[in-house]
Specification:
78% helix, single chain, 0% strand, mainly alpha
Length: 183
């Protein structure tokens, strides 16, 4: 157990440095992310499929296939990392994390626009149910429960807390993001 102490201590000391500070999204970061994503999409479309080597056979030819597949995967990974670095990101994990934040902010903005209308429609439906003199009380209760479940679904569809600065940065680039995603 004593042998593990030193490596674990070193790991604990380095984690804050590796994680780095999380800063709010800004226009420059989103622009770099969009450019990297666009370049990666174009680059990916040009890549040939990596041929999966035949497994189970351990002769020289099959081992050569394995070696070639590993070399090809290594080249692909290096090329992808070069694209990521060219746009100012340390690695693909950082690019992915930024992308996740951009997508969460887009979803939050979309929900911010849609939820008020959806809530209004739910309220109108609830009022119609309550005002219907021909609907039995049991059926009204079932319908109220169904509408409350819909309201809960709306609340659950909202992404986790998204910083205002992230939403502001994404809001300023909605047209460009829409073009990137092709919607």
């Amino acid at each position: 157990m004593k042998k593990l102490t030193k490596p674990l201590l070193m790991l604990a000391m380095c984690l804050p440095w590796w994680a780095g500070p999380v800063h709010a999204l800004d226009g420059d970061t989103i622009d770099r992310w969009m450019a990297a994503t666009q370049e990666l999409n174009e680059w990916t479309a040009q890549q040939s499929e990596v041929q999966e080597p035949a497994m189970g056979v351990h002769d020289e030819a099959s081992m050569e296939e394995v070696r070639q597949a590993i070399e090809q995967m290594t080249r692909i990974e290096q090329q992808a990392q070069e694209i990521v670095a060219r746009h100012g990101f340390e690695n693909s994990t950082e690019l992915t994390n930024i992308g996740s934040r951009v997508l969460n902010a887009r979803l939050a903005l979309e929900m911010e626009r849609r939820i008020p209308e959806m809530e209004r429609q739910l309220e109108e439906n609830l009022q119609r149910i309550e005002d219907d003199p021909n609907m039995p009380a049991e059926q009204k209760a079932i319908m109220r429960d169904a509408l409350e479940q819909q309201r809960e679904t709306l609340r659950d569809a909202t992404p986790p807390e998204v910083p205002d600065q992230d939403m502001d940065a994404v809001r300023a680039r909605e047209d460009e993001l829409e073009a990137l995603f092709g919607h």
